[in-house]
Amino acid sequence: MGIGTVRAADPTDESAGCVDAVGPGYVDAADSVGAVNVTDATDTVVSSSAASAPSLHSNVAQVVGRFAPSPTGRMHLGNILASLLAWLSVRSQGGKLVLRIEDLDDRARSGPWDALLMDDLRWLGLDWDEGPYYQTDRIDLYADAVRRLDDMGLVYPCFCTRAELHAASAPHASDGTPVYAGTCRGLTAAEVVARSKARPPALRLKVPPVQGIASSRGPFESFASESKHSKTELTDFGNSMPRELTFGDCSERGTRGAAASRGAAGGDAGVMHFEDRTYGPQREVLAEECGDFLVRRSDGVYAYQLAVVVDDADMGVNEVVRGCDLLGSTARQMYLQDLLGYAHPSYAHVPLLVAPDGRRLSKRDRDCDMGVLREHFGTPGALLGRLAYVAGLVSSPEPRTADQLADGFSWSAVCEHRDNIAVEECFFA
Ligand SMILES: [Zn+2]
């Protein structure tokens, strides 16, 4: 079982699989960059795969990165930078890149965006070695993963409405997003049955409670056994669902690392530590920053965090490069990796690009989207050279191809410019 079905990859062939997924949103499930949902566009992850899924590569030393766009609109400048850095990192290490179209959400299946995304990547000279793989072809793998988590007693149905989740009384994370309060964690089987008649539930994954964090007992068994229903009915549910919680900014998170030095994947259950290549050591307490999180929405769509983790493991991704708006989802993904027995990939988050006035670039406003940029710059080299200059990768703005930028590429240049990057007026047509 490896990677689901591969569709025709030729982006110039409009008939080849371009219809289901949409483009370049590069949004990871978390709507980060403004209204643009970029799904992990640049997430690249690799790791060992699940026991049942043979790794795509047997050479453990090979770097496997990924482009993982959510095609909800045309790529914009932030997506391009994240894609460029994912590509440069992999190419400069002699690794390979996988293209995965994250089209689980309806919005990502209703436009020409996946075809445009691939056309734009090719135009930029950012090629890939495998794919495109479409998440909608891989649903069975996500279902299996949720079943495994449910077998551990860690999954339960949640009937909360969005309004309930955002209630003023709800606890909030450091960035202001609501933390799930565990409202539905203790429902009895009878209550679940009764409520299911009125509203299809989402499925949530338990995270270890804060008070259990310092405990020396084994990872998850104690709180898993608290579950009143050991198994959740994993039937199909209907529609309407609370969006995944997400974290926003990262320039502030860059300093978080001061107290976090245990390195990747160390620590107690529910406290995730990792070293971000750009933002340094990170530490996050799941119970405080998100609480029990979604693995499947009430409309039956598997949550971004779950799908990404399953796919990265199955595809052998061991290096994830993506926009810093996704930095906050890393801890949840690592927690899932631990539970499912997957290795942690390395993570590098890419600084956020903002307009000259400081606001976030937005797909909605068509700020710097690829249609505009291709027309404006004329050649990929002109665009990439200018973008690399703005991002601090090179010292002058002259045209450069992706291959030329790969020569001498180093993450240290990115780290030195990890605060939000204001793009110059010249990017706006
Ligand atoms: Zn609930």
From TrEMBL:
Cofactor remark: Binds 1 zinc ion per subunit.
Assigned keywords, A-Z: Aminoacyl-tRNA synthetase, ATP-binding, Ligase, Metal-binding, Nucleotide-binding, Protein biosynthesis, Zinc
Motif window: 'HIGH' region: 69-79
Record-linked Gene3D superfamilies: Glutamyl-tRNA Synthetase, Domain 3, HUPs
Domain Glutamyl/glutaminyl-tRNA synthetase class Ib catalytic, residue spans: 62-208, 273-367
GO cellular component, one term: cytosol
Classification via InterPro entries: aa-tRNA-synth_I_CS, Glu-Q_tRNA(Asp)_Synthase, Glu/Gln-tRNA-synth, Glu/Gln-tRNA-synth_Ib_cat-dom, GluQ/Sye, Rossmann-like_a/b/a_fold
Listed PROSITE patterns: AA_TRNA_LIGASE_I
Cofactor: Zn(2+)
EC number, UniProt record: 6.1.1.-
Motif window: 'KMSKS' region: 360-364
Amino-acid positions noted as binding Zn(2+) in the UniProt annotation, renumbered to this chain: 158, 160, 180, 184
Binding-site list for ATP: 363
GO biological process, one term: glutamyl-tRNA aminoacylation
Chain residues that bind L-glutamate: 66-70, 102, 304, 322
Record flagged with keyword Metal-binding: yes
Pfam families found in the cross-reference section: tRNA-synt_1c
Molecular function per GO: ATP binding; glutamate-tRNA ligase activity; zinc ion binding
Family the UniProt entry places it in: Belongs to the class-I aminoacyl-tRNA synthetase family. GluQ subfamily.
HAMAP family xref list: Glu_Q_tRNA_synth
The protein's role, per its UniProt record: Catalyzes the tRNA-independent activation of glutamate in presence of ATP and the subsequent transfer of glutamate onto a tRNA(Asp). Glutamate is transferred on the 2-amino-5-(4,5-dihydroxy-2-cyclopenten-1-yl) moiety of the queuosine in the wobble position of the QUC anticodon.
PANTHER family per record: GLUTAMATE--TRNA LIGASE (PTHR43311), GLUTAMYL-Q TRNA(ASP) SYNTHETASE (PTHR43311:SF1)
Protein name (Swiss-Prot/TrEMBL): Glutamyl-Q tRNA(Asp) synthetase
Protein source organism: Collinsella stercoris DSM 13279
Name of encoding gene: gluQ
